[in-house]
């Protein structure tokens, strides 16, 4: 089937934590760790958080701050009162502005390519009610066609109702939509429950043997979708 609609997670796919801001908040409390070390530790921390039992027993907000402690631990930082104070400061910033404010270099070109090829781009993200404000601030709002923030909708992934809301409001159908996310037990499980083909963004190649398509980058996503389109065209001949 053709794929006219591409659902995309926001955090970890289109926008990323500002690790420089995190590093600076820690350094003000005497905890010295470079932003690059935090960024490098992040995929492993996220993978350790991505467990079915953990996802089912927590909500996105609870997981978010566990995630930062895991990143610190993976980066070799001992958790302490100082790290807790830094994370509390960052939490306040996140509530006001959204800490996931870094846009990787490949994001805008990949989105532009997908749009130029006729795909509808829809952000479906567990967020804190500040996602639209963030996308306006980092100038991504015009790069997508619709945006759904779980805080605004009152339901979050992996609940299939969140996907169903996005499908209905964008006039999309599950069998002609894919969803791209970075957490298996949030994005893959949730998309499947809504009848949508999931694609896992696995930048560090940590999900080998995963039972769904994986891509290592947004450029890889563009290639994956193009290959699907070419296969569909070949099959129709």
Give a structural overview.
The structure is a single chain. The protein is 52% helix and 11% strand. The chain contains 11 helices and 6 strands. The chain has a 6-stranded parallel β-sheet, with helices on both faces. The chain is globular, with a radius of gyration of 18 Å. The two termini are 13 Å apart. The mean pLDDT is 95.
Keywords:
single chain, 237 residues, alpha/beta, Rossmann fold, 2 domains, six-stranded parallel beta sheet, 11 helices, 6 strands, 52% helix, 11% strand
Main sheet record: 6 strands, parallel
Instruction: Please give the domain count.
Output: 2
Silhouette: globular
Structural class: alpha/beta
Task: Give a summary of the structure in a few sentences.
By secondary structure, the protein is an alpha/beta fold. It has helices at 19-27, 35-49, 52-57, 60-74, 81-97, 107-116, 131-137, 150-153, 160-170, 184-193, 218-236; strands at 5-8, 120-125, 146-149, 177-181, 197-201, 214-215. A 6-stranded parallel β-sheet has the order 3-2-1-4-5-6, sandwiched between helices.
